[in-house]
TrEMBL record, chain A:
One of its GO terms (molecular function) is ATP hydrolysis activity. It is a peripheral membrane protein. Its main location: membrane. SUPFAM superfamilies: P-loop containing nucleoside triphosphate hydrolases. Residues 15-265, 285-532 form the ABC transporter domain. It is found in: Cell inner membrane. It holds the Pfam family oligo_HPY. This is ABC transporter ATP-binding protein.
Automatic annotation (TrEMBL), chain B:
It is found in: Cell membrane. It is a multi-pass membrane protein. Belongs to the binding-protein-dependent transport system permease family. Keywords: Cell membrane, Membrane, Transmembrane, Transmembrane helix, Transport. SUPFAM superfamilies: MetI-like. Residues 95-300 form the ABC transmembrane type-1 domain. One of its GO terms (cellular component) is plasma membrane. Pfam families: BPD_transp_1 (PF00528), BPD_transp_1_N (PF19300). This is ABC transporter permease. It comes from Paracoccus alkanivorans. One of its GO terms (biological process) is transmembrane transport.
Amino acid sequence: MRFKTRNFDTSSVALSTEDLSVHLPDTPGQPQVLKQIDVTIRQGETVCLVGESGSGKSVTSLAIMGLLPEALKVTEGRINLQDRDLLPLSRAQMRELRAARIAMIFQEPMTALNPVLRVGGQIMEVMELHTQLPAAERRARAISIMEQVHLPDVERVFRSYPHQLSGGQRQRIMIAMALVLEPVLLIADEPTTALDVTTQQQILSLIEELQANHGTAVLFITHDMGVVAEIADTVYVMKHGEIVEHGPVEHVLRQPQADYTRDLLASVPSLSPRPARPEGDEIVLKVEALNKIYGGGGILKKLPQTHAAKEVSFTLTRGRTLGIVGESGSGKSTVARCIMRLIDPTSGRIMLDGQDIAGLSRNALRPHRKKLQVVFQDPMRSLNPRWTIAESLIEGPLNYGTPRSEAMAEAARMLTVVGLPENALKRYPHQFSGGQRQRIAIARAVMMRPDVLVADEAVSALDVSVQAQVLKLLEQLQDELGIAIVFITHDLRVAAQICDEVIVMQRGAVVEHGTAAEVLVSPAHAYTRSLIEAAPGRMWDFQNFKEMPEVTHANPS
Amino acid sequence: MLGYILRRILAVIPVMLLVAVFVFLLLRLTPGDPAAIIAGDMATPAQLERIREAMGLNQPLHVQFFTWVGQLLRGDLGTSLISSTPVAGMIADRMGPTLAIALLTILMSVALAIPMGVIAAWKHRSGADYAVMTFSVLGFSVPVFVIGYVFILLFSLKLGWFPVQGYTPISEGLVAFLKNAFLPALTLTTIYVALIARMTRANMLEVLGEDYIRTARAKGAPEHRVLFRHALRNAAVPILTVIGTGFALLIGGVVVTETVFNIPGIGRLTVDAILARDYPVIQAMILLTSFLYVLVNLIIDLSYTFFDPRIRY
């Protein structure tokens, strides 16, 4: 692992915060959201602010931008941009600085651009707001910065609307918009979290390239230790609104001082796969030559077809976990939805406990639904907000004729199994954290005593420490109840930790299939290798604070 | 896009045909003999027979229907039973006032309601927001004739700014027209401002929470630009729907307002026709209102593409 070891002692300070404190003045008790934050970023330096959700890293960035939500107030401290304190500035003065001196890019490129305006116009708007440049010059500069962020076919993209571009392209537009006026500081708030690993790698190296060309200081906010290892010069670790540790990246990763940093690093799932459990002889799910084709309809002319799943086949025995990995659009979720019959496969067989359910009607399917349960990605949206936890948990069993009292008793027992207090039954989803909600979602699925559990990106929205707990819970349930799990994920680290077997999908087709160890340690297919190589921080063993042991590829091609 | 417009226009045909069937059956399904209804209680059998002959009631039903539709397509909406004048002419005479007041009402409503809704959303939960919401509830719940009479009392009788009643067409001068049309339009505006402002506020509130609004602010855009350039266009589609349906309702004629201000509009024509059982007029009015509804909805649907590039047909 090669960490950045650039020295910035002689560079001028781009931004520093001193004793920056933020409160919620209108909330009883006036809780403090940020506590005396001191951060220094020098010209050309990349500072990573890491922490879990709620640690205050986004609040810090919004405070610097002067864009805190109305409920939050800076109560103390200074924010110096090149030695000029920003806090006393008027709204109009702050507006002039934004995008011109401090620019920001956000996590969700899908929603961060205005959907009804052309992207070229959105880039030019920055110049309209801050410069007197004539229209032709604005256009020329917009085109130039779009070329610098390596967008293809710039003239066409310039005239496009956001929905016509991919996630990676939209993030490039955001970066172009942020850097067109060559700001002193770029704040990047989780800019690659919503992107595929290969796209992430491209965006990270793009930011690095532009930083080198323009000497921009970068404040990079992330929860991903892998990304930190790749790009940071200096790391600040945040917890509950405080900086618990900071230092050069290698120092923090090799010799973390604070207990919290050690815990955080220890929860990063390792890329080295755990050994596979033995294959059982009771086959619970067997998928044969599954195909799903979208489109092709149309009355006047035939619409283009999308082959979302091509000839997918696999077998799953009781108590084992099969991972399906791939990037967005690879077809992994299509396969999951076909198995659950949330969508109808175009052809192929889905044998659940020896019965083909691929062609069953909705009614004929009903008895089989019970055996096949699902946990979705976003626990914030997968529980009905107006139902108590108890109602959500017992609905399934009631549908299958379990008496209410029996179902309630089982719900209470299930909650303790997933590690929640029994009084959670009468409460509503919004009273729980994301991790707790995901436990509830798992409890809901397991209440049905399924043979197969489909987990669709079930831990992707969770912090690493919570992620580790939920993965452990799944494993424990699996051991106790012998559930087979189909685990859909884009995260190779998670796949390495939970899967016995892994399928790699690309554009609807399975390109590689084997045990987790085979696929992740000695990948045979070029696509699998590119995925592994794009995984940030793959050369570093975070849990043990040292380099990964040298891996020899068994079958290099 | 062109293909879509064509398809939508073609789709108007079956809808209107269905309406025509209903309208046609309206007269035929009314209990009793249409000729007897038309001729009145004192008619002799000979008179009845003459009317049947004249209306073609002796012919089979489908022949009657197609004859009637043929007449409609030639612009012949029949003859009023009461005044014995062509219905098409009667409607044309009454359309002017109704259309003029409808347009004025919508223009004033949009001009007032959109800024009100935007400000209410921008200053969410402030005094301004509560003021707009209170106005909305009032404008919607106070009966329109009460508002009309209060306006007459205040602006016409006390202040003497406007005439109490009556209508002057635009052809006799814009000022004269506005003098008469302003109060009825203002009366109707209270309802439509309430409706459109509420819709604007609700949709703006949603849009202002979106990520791209944060992006606009991060670019250093001033608030008015954030609101009107970035947010409003994204909130436009549902607001547009309300405006369009509102306009269609207004063209259908607003009986109460027309009565209060003594305006010779479509609304009163319809009510008079219903009270007098003037069937040809009633039929023509149903056809016309349905057609206007279909037309306005078509225009609204097509205008969506102008506001939101993601909507493509």
